């Protein structure tokens, strides 16, 4: 492996910038598919800065280097950038805190900003070019200055893709493609170019291994209003049987690298693209006469609404996850009582091992977060061999983990007291539980934008002038990405038709509270929108949340006098459901643990 210091990497990048008369270079946490999790080939920001968080924007000038991250990563970034010249730039809700605002302030008229256009979405390009243009700063988007420096840059992954088992999907891929083509016809649009990997995997009823934690594969897809479909993919990734199935379904195959050339030669006049999910490189490849229709991918809406049969598969995945977690937490409780040596790394190993025993387990749905005391205050903390804590003494252990099964995706957070929790820790824990219950009990109109629900969850914390810097809930895919749009229970998200809530959508419910340097608390279940029964009322249809996650919520940390009778009843009812569903599948220590931890309070 190439072994260069961060300072040497910055030096070489600046030499290239000087040669090409570039005043600032932007490195985004992105790939040509605008993915959240990236193949190693596209992890340029991690390679150059040493910051390992999943989100961040790096800007390099000849005089300065800055990394922009939001509040989830401030502590982590400060620690990881400490031995470098790269400065932490705190990204907030304020418009002047962005890297674009900084560029406008610090660059001069006629300066040039450059970035790799393959990793810049159309929407990002529009924002960048407009704001830089006000100061007559130009933007070049075809500059890859990373590859010449990163001599041993990993190649793109080419793992084989698989067709999902029969019976898991409610619609065939032809039916899904037909849904998209019908939408195009209705909207008088000729074709649709898709780069987002989860949309492509969902449409084709296939899964892959190219991106860690997300069962997707690198590809682009084009669908015409007539249903003609072209898949851009490394053909060696496709088993012969699947090639034949694609041929039968009239899906044409072209090399992955040919997507730009295909778009350049297209004759369709009106093309639909998602401006947040397609790169400016692909948009600029289109002929000038092409009219670009900027809308959310129709498939993003379609896949967000799970069918009753898909929800039933997800319930089965949740049952398996609950069984594995009962064994894990039973082990953890006994190990702590026996004073075994346990570290945050041990937690990750054990929870994965218990899940791996369940049928249809594929892998983790994201990197396990096991944070003890101060580490738990970092919402996206991850223990490493170089930096981790042992679980000992008194405190709170936050465990956020999830799994990919062939029939569902899980995501759960629980907090475990270690030793004797303090009154302040119990107070914080109870406030977070009240917030969790508040959202879990919500009833709301069909079509309500999801961000408007966020204040319901935050109310118990806001009443004590407390808050947390992440959303309360994100969408979750069906045996797909653990983070899925378009809906999001977060007041940071836009309030529009794309974030509306409908029956069958799955979200997380995960309020938290973080005391920097002390402890972190988050309680998370997955929930699904269900119609309130008894038909349409005078004011239309309403939705409620059905809990999908099956795992006890720790009760020893609760300050019981803070809970209302209704909140206690909710918790007791939830625990009764967990016990009823899991008990027939458990025995021994795990069964005893479940019974003890689902007792009514």
From TrEMBL:
Residues 312-528 form the Peptidase M24 domain. It comes from the Bacteria. InterPro entries: Creatin/AminoP/Spt16_N, Creatinase/aminopeptidase-like, Creatinase_N, Pept_M24, Pept_M24B, Peptidase_M24_C, X-Pro_aminopeptidase_P. One of its GO terms (molecular function) is aminopeptidase activity. Residues 542-601 form the Peptidase M24 C-terminal domain. Belongs to the peptidase M24B family. PANTHER family: XAA-PRO AMINOPEPTIDASE 1. This is Aminopeptidase P family protein.
């Amino acid at each position: 492996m190439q072994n260069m210091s961060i300072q040497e990497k910055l030096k070489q990048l600046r030499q290239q910038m000087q040669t090409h008369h570039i005043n600032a270079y932007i490195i985004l946490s992105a790939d040509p598919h605008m993915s959240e999790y990236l193949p190693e080939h596209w992890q340029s920001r991690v390679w150059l800065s040493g910051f390992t968080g999943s989100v961040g924007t790096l800007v390099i000038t000849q005089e300065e280097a800055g990394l922009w991250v939001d509040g989830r990563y401030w502590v982590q970034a400060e620690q990881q950038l400490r031995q470098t010249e790269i400065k932490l730039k705190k990204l907030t809700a304020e418009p002047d805190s962005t890297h674009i605002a900084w560029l406008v302030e610090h660059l001069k008229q006629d300066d040039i900003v450059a970035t790799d256009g393959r990793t810049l979405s159309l929407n990002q390009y529009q924002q960048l070019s407009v704001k830089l243009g006000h100061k007559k700063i130009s933007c070049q988007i075809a500059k890859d200055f990373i590859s010449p420096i990163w001599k041993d840059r990993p190649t793109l992954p080419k793992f084989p893709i698989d067709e999902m088992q029969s019976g898991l999907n409610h619609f065939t891929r032809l039916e899904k493609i037909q849904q998209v083509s019908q939408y195009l016809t209705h909207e008088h649009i000729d074709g649709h170019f898709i780069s987002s990997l989860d949309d492509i995997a969902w449409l084709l009823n296939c899964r892959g291994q190219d991106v860690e934690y997300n069962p997707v594969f690198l590809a682009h897809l084009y669908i015409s209003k007539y249903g003609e479909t072209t898949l851009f993919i490394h053909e060696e990734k496709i088993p012969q049987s699947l090639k034949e199935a694609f041929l039968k379904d009239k899906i044409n195959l072209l090399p992955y690298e040919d997507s730009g050339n295909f778009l350049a030669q297209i004759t369709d006049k009106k093309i639909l693209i998602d401006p947040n999910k397609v790169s400016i490189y692909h948009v600029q490849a289109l002929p000038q006469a092409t009219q670009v229709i900027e809308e959310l991918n129709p498939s993003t809406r379609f896949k967000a609404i799970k069918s009753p049969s898909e929800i039933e598969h997800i319930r089965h995945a949740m049952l398996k996850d609950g069984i594995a977690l009962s064994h894990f937490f039973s082990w953890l409780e006994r190990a702590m009582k026996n004073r075994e040596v346990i570290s945050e790394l041990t937690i990750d190993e054990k929870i994965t091992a218990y899940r791996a025993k369940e049928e249809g387990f594929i892998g983790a749905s994201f990197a396990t977060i096991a944070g003890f005391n101060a580490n738990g205050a970092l919402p996206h903390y991850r223990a490493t061999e170089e930096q981790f804590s042992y679980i000992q003494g008194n405190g709170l252990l936050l465990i956020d983990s999830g799994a990919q099964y062939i029939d569902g995706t899980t995501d759960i957070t629980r907090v475990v007291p270690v030793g004797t929790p303090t009154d302040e820790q119990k107070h914080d824990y109870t406030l977070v539980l009240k917030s969790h219950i508040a959202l879990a009990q919500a009833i709301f109109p069909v079509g309500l934008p999801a961000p408007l629900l966020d204040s319901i969850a935050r109310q118990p914390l806001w009443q004590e002038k407390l808050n947390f810097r992440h959303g309360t809930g994100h969408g979750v895919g069906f045996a797909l990405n653990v983070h899925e749009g378009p809906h999001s229970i977060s007041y940071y998200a836009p309030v529009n038709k794309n974030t509306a809530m409908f029956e069958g959508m799955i979200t997380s419910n995960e309020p938290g509270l973080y005391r920097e340097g002390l402890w972190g608390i988050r309680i998370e279940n997955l929930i699904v929108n269900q119609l309130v029964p008894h038909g349409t009322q005078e004011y239309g249809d309403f939705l409620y949340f059905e809990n999908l996650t099956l795992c006890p919520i720790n009760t020893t940390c609760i300050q019981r006098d803070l809970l209302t009778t209704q909140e206690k009843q909710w918790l007791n009812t939830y625990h009764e459901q967990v016990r009823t569903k899991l008990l027939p599948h458990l025995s021994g220590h795990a069964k005893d643990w479940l019974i003890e931890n689902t007792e009514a309070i």
